[in-house]
Amino acid sequence: MKIIVCLKQVPDTNEVRINQETGTLIRDGVPSIINPDDKNALEEALRIKAAHDCTVTVLSMGPPQAKNALKEALAMGADEAILLSDRAFGGSDTWATATVLAAAIEKVGSYDVILCGRQAIDGDTAQVGPEIAEFLNIPQVTYAKKIDFKDGKAIVTRYTETGDYVIESKMPVLLTAIKELNVPRYPTVKGILNAYSPGSDNIKVWGIDDLTIDATQIGLKGSTTNVYKSFVPTKSKTNEMIDGLNGKEKAAKLIGKLSDLKLI
Amino acid sequence: MRRKVNQAINLSDYKDIWVIGEQREGKIHPVTTELIGEAKKLVEGTANQVMVVIAGHNIEAEVEKLLYYGVDKVYYINSPLLETFSTDGYSKAIAELILEKKPEIVLVGATSIGRDIGPRLAAKIGTGLVADCTKLEIDPSDGKLLQTRPAFGGNLMATIICPINRPQMATVRPGVMKKAVHEANAVGVVEKISPTLKDEDIVAKVVEMIPSGKKRINLTDAKIIVSGGRGIKGPEGFDLIKALADKLGGEVGSSRACVDCGWIDHMHQVGQTGTTVRPVVYIACGISGAIQHLAGMSDSDYIIAINTDPEAPIFKVCDYGIVGDLKEVIPAMMEEVDKLKAFEL
Ligand SMILES: Cc1cc2nc3c(=O)[nH]c(=O)nc-3n(C[C@H](O)[C@H](O)[C@H](O)COP(=O)(O)OP(=O)(O)OC[C@H]3O[C@@H](n4cnc5c(N)ncnc54)[C@H](O)[C@@H]3O)c2cc1C
Ligand SMILES: Nc1ncnc2c1ncn2[C@@H]1O[C@H](COP(=O)(O)O)[C@@H](O)[C@H]1O
User: Fold this and answer.
1) Which residues contact B322 (CB under 8 A, 6 or more apart)?
2) pLDDT range class, residue B296, cuts 50, 70, 90
3) Which CATH number describes the domain made up of A2-222?
4) Which of A228, A208, A205 is nearest to A217 (CA)?
5) Hey, whose CA ends up nearest to atom 38 of ligand 1?
6) Alpha-carbon distance B209 to B213, whole Å?
7) Tens-digit pLDDT profile for residues B219-249
8) What distance in Å separates the CA atoms of residue A117 and residue B38, rounded to the nearest whole number?
């Protein structure tokens, strides 16, 4: 079996601060991490590898420094890492990102399972996985919290707000991971030595010329959506004391306000 | 079926706003009426109509209910192959209809199902999709849909447009938009559609449904958190906190004081040494508002404080404050919520 994991390097949003004057993100000094859901996707791939005979390839589209995320993935136990990096990919929205990733997956060739995270914490869109699946014309199961294989099929438990669905799918299939799926491992010492030893350049880098791709479909120009403006949400506190004759009256006023604000 | 980004289409061929209705096990999901309410707001003053698409099987009676929310038409895609949810079947059937009828805007609920099917639809059709929007407006200058959504964990808001592709598609966060009003008379009609689905089209099949049993506590994703502090006076105080949380569909939080007293598990602790939370509504009951507690909840959208001490620091950071005894205020709040619910469908 062959598994491909799509993994994105993201800024740790817990650390992201906003420049209140310019309304932009302060990225300086903000650590970059492997997107948390993608770590669950990778962990699952490594578990499947341990139980079945297979290889794990990790793919990431991003600037050269995204190599660090791929190195970490190799240190965790991935077999092969490919960075998709090219000026032409810059400014891609989910459509354009999925177009590049799908083209790279086609170049990798054979695969049985593609694992993505459910969503990346910078954009929170959760769209890239399903769009890749559509472009490759393969089935998808999103929000996966348990994955098994039986008789050449994937048996996946997917979360919904009202209960879980058990879904059976032929392969190849694309799955998106949520954090309930597993607890990601730490890299082993041996893995770290292999991945980070000086001179070991074990990450392939592919640019636009390495892929069979329609250049009008990628980057800023190929994106279907554009950011028109961005702004910092204003979170000023109303700071209103609710008065009333007694607790009952105050409670009624409060619930009225919450209801008007559509909060309950 | 996949189209390219530069669709080279005639934008004026596209009209009307469609809501992709969501049904689960034959029951319409509440996000559907929220999307109808929003769509009706967006068509005001234009010639566009509001239409709902709903896929399923043998759910005529449920589908007809939608007509009482002022929609102009419901496309009911009916097939035995659509009886249970499948990404393959639902997205194929709905995408075909969208390509045929050319709506200008398509809204999908940002539920775990909507966020599965939305991107699949957009990719099939060849258009953009904006995820999890919390605000939609029409740009008065050119009629484009301005789609606003949070990014970077809510640190930044972005307004996004889909300039050259159609339809303009968004998934919309549940619980944000105002529900359409239920009217006495139905105006629109239901049009039945038979999709061109075959059994082989459905590759990933639901083989079992497991209704969620006991709820695990999940403070980070909770929209509403009701928290108790030392002011609840003992472990049984959490019965009251829990009752309010359940009524509002929220989770129970706690200050460290109560955890240290052994009144509740550490899983519930909010603050510097507990969980950091950012719900839409945080209701602090009998919590003084020590800085270590505030560190874990001050990013909540709305903070409500109930405390007997008018000088309690929590009142400095709240949106709405009630000086009062939580044992009196909380039961009264629950009564008021019941009254509200009595008006709902
Ligand atoms: C290193 C460190 C880390 C810490 N981390 C955390 C943390 O993660 N989370 C956390 O919460 N705390 C934390 N603390 C503890 C924090 O400093 C406070 O001690 C704690 O938050 C106080 O909890 P409280 O508000 O429930 O209790 P109190 O401060 O005792 O406040 C109780 C409040 O209830 C009100 N009250 C009394 N009766 C009623 C009634 N009938 N109706 C309504 N109101 C009533 C009182 O007026 C009072 O304001 C930490 C402290 C340290 C030193
Ligand atoms: N630039 C990228 N490189 C590799 N994988 C990505 C990239 N962007 C998104 N993904 C994958 O798609 C998932 C969903 O991302 P998003 O749609 O941006 O929320 C992520 O969890 C990743 O698995």
Assistant:
1) A241, A242, A247, A250, A251, A254, B304, B305, B306, B307, B329
2) confident
3) 3.40.50.620
4) A208
5) B231
6) 12
7) 877 899 999 999 999 999 999 999 999 999 9
8) 30
ipTM of the prediction greater than 0.85, yes or no:
no
Q: Which residue has the tokens 């929609």?
A: B71
* CB A130 within 8 Å of CB B120: yes
Distance CA B316, CA A239 (A): 7
Distance from chain centroid for Cα A72: 16
Instruction: Give the DSSP H/E element, type plus range, for residue A4.
Output: strand A2-6
Element spanning B238, H or E: helix B237-248
E strand or H helix at A146, and its extent? strand A140-150
- What does the radius of gyration of chain B's CA atoms come to, in whole angstroms? 23
How far apart are the C-alpha atoms of A197 and B245, rounded to whole Å?
A: 53
- Measured CA to CA in angstroms, residue B246 lies from A102, A216, B239, B258 at distances of 44, 51, 10, 20
**Structural domains in chain B?**
11-201 (3.40.50.620), 224-344 (3.40.50.1220)
- Which one-letter amino acid corresponds to residue A242? I
Number of A/B CB contacts below 8 angstroms equals 252
Query: pTM higher than 0.80, yes or no?
Result: no
Over 70: is that where the pLDDT of B344 sits?
A: no
A55-109, pLDDT tens digit by residue? 999 999 999 999 999 999 999 999 999 999 999 999 999 999 999 999 999 999 9
Q: Which residues pair with A158 in a beta bridge?
A: A144, A165
Residue B244 tokens read as 């309010």
Tell me the β-bridge partners of B78.
B56
Cα–Cα distance, B286 to B231 (Å, whole number): 4
C-beta atoms of B316 and A239 within 8 A: yes
Q: Which residues line ligand 1 (CB under 6 A)?
A: B 229-231, 255-258, 269, 271-274, 286-288, 290, 292-293, 296, 306-309, 312, 325-327
With beta carbons under 8 A apart, name residues in chain A contacting B159: 227-231
Length of chain A, in residues? 264
Q: How is B93-160 classified by DSSP, letter by letter?
A: HHHHHHHHH--SEEEEE-STTHHHHHHHHHHHHT--EEEEESEEEE-TTT-PEEEEEEEGGGTEEEEE
Q: With contact defined as beta carbons under 8 Å apart, do A195 and A189 qualify?
A: no
Which pLDDT belongs to residue B153?
Answer: 65
Share of chain B above pLDDT 90, in %: 76
Nearest to A237 among B120, B317, B329 (CB): B317
Other C-beta atoms closer than 10 Å to the C-beta of B179 total: 18
